[in-house]
From TrEMBL:
This is Peptidoglycan DD-metalloendopeptidase family protein. Residues 201-295 form the M23ase beta-sheet core domain. Residues 101-137 have a biased composition (Basic and acidic residues). Residues 59-87 have a biased composition (Low complexity). One of its GO terms (molecular function) is metalloendopeptidase activity. InterPro entries: Cell_wall_metabolism_enzyme, Dup_hybrid_motif, M23ase_b-sheet_dom. SUPFAM superfamilies: Duplicated hybrid motif (SSF51261). Residues 20-39, 48-175, 281-306 are annotated as: Disordered.
Amino acid sequence: MARSGAVLGVGVIAAVGAGGMASAQDRPAAPISVPDVPDLKELPEMAGKLLGVVEEESPAPAASREASEPVNDPASAPALAQNAADAGEALRARILQQAEHQQDSAEEAARESEAKAAEDAHRKTAAEETAKAKAQEQAEENQQAPQAGDKAEGKAADAAGPETQKPAAPSRSEHGSYVLPVGSYTLTAGFGQSGNMWSANHTGEDFAAPTGTPVKAVGGGTITQAGWAGAYGYRIVLTQDDGTELWFCHLSSMVVTSGKVAAGDVIGRVGATGNVTGPHLHLEVRPGGGGPVDPLPWLRDKGLQP
């Protein structure tokens, strides 16, 4: 209706301008075009369209839109995805690197363990071979020693006379309290015999036997000395209850070096240590710990037959 009024006013002004002032009676009435008035039911829809046009022609300020609308920049999404992918790849690479390092460390430890085991096995084998070689050498020496001893003792026996070479006799007295010092032997140099092997006459009795032959305690008593004794080599001194000392000399090894022993106990082994020409046992008997006496009569007095 406002727009219709405006059209009417424009028509009046135009008429006045064209013809000057005129009265309504002089001129015919100007035609007036009034648009159709819309139905009242269509007013809300038209008002909405008009308002929409106004909103489209007058957009809201950018700052207002930014404040009211959420930011959703499509261009930034690929960058964020790429950054996430790069971070994941870096983490994966670090994990793989750590796993590879741990595997290398485990393999290195395994190699070191295998090398150590091989070295230990080599050392053990070398030690066993060395022990076998020493045992073989000792066995060969034991085989050669009786031959050399037999020759040397045979010469001494020839010089002393055939009566000193006697076969083995019963080694234990009938009372069982005394035994011979070795089971199988040959008597060689006797008591009081002279020779260039001694600075004075021979002070004991020699029982020739292979190296390693067991040496037994002749009677019960206490071992009071055991060790190296110069020309006597390795020597064991057995002191009986009455003070008599029995010397076992030129031993290759000493089995018992102290304490009480009984008749027949193995206390050492025949050897060739000290001033000797071959393996044998040198036995001395010293009553009361004094000077030596002939061992053979002393042994016979104990019921033995050397």
